[in-house]
Structure formats: structure tokens, C-alpha cells
Amino acid sequence: MRRLAAGVFLLNLLAVTWPVADWFSAAEPLILGLPPSMVWPIAWILIGWVTLLLLDHFENRGNGQ
User: Fold this and answer.
1) 65 vs 62: CA distance, rounded Å
2) What angle do CA 14, 50, 9 make, to 5 degrees?
3) Most buried among 9, 10, 60, 62, using CB within 10 Å?
4) Which residues pair with 34 in a beta bridge?
5) CB–CB of 62/5 below 8 Å?
6) Where do the domains of the chain lie?
7) What is the pLDDT along the chain (65 residues), one digit of tens a residue?
8) 7-11 contacts: CB < 8 A, separation 24 or more?
9) Is residue 36 reached through a cis peptide bond, with omega within 30 degrees of 0 on the bond before it?
10) What is the pTM of this model?
């Protein structure tokens, strides 16, 4: 699970840096009222948060917590 989490965060690093983030720099179309240039990093922050929650769940599964 740690390798998967590391892979997700490496993908996160690549997804929010240039040139990938430049693909989403347009002002239109709006997604939930936000331009894609704001939705893209917010989505990756949420993906990272969910990854950390899953990692914590699987790491502490047998500890009785």
C-alpha cells in the first residue's frame, strides 16, 4: 500500500506541474462554477487526501485503533 501511495503522490507531482497543468489553463468551460485551472489542483489535493486516509486505514487495521 505504501508503494501505491508513493505512486499516487508522484503522479500528483507530475499532474500539477508544467506542462501537464498547462493543458487545463483555459478559463472555459466552468466546472462547478470554477475554471479548470482551479479544479485540476483541487481534484489532486482531494485525491491525495483520500490516498492518505486509505493508507492510514490499511496501516492501522491490525492495531486495534
Assistant:
1) 8
2) 20
3) 9
4) 31
5) no
6) 2-59
7) 889 999 999 988 888 888 877 887 888 888 888 998 889 899 999 999 999 999 999 988 867 65
8) 8/47, 8/48, 8/51, 9/48, 9/51
9) no
10) 0.80
Amino acid at 38: M
Query: Distances in Å between the alpha carbon of 31 and those of 17, 42, 44, 49, 61?
Result: 20, 12, 15, 21, 37
The answer to whether 44 and 15 are in contact (CB under 8 A) is yes
Identity at 36, one-letter amino acid code: P
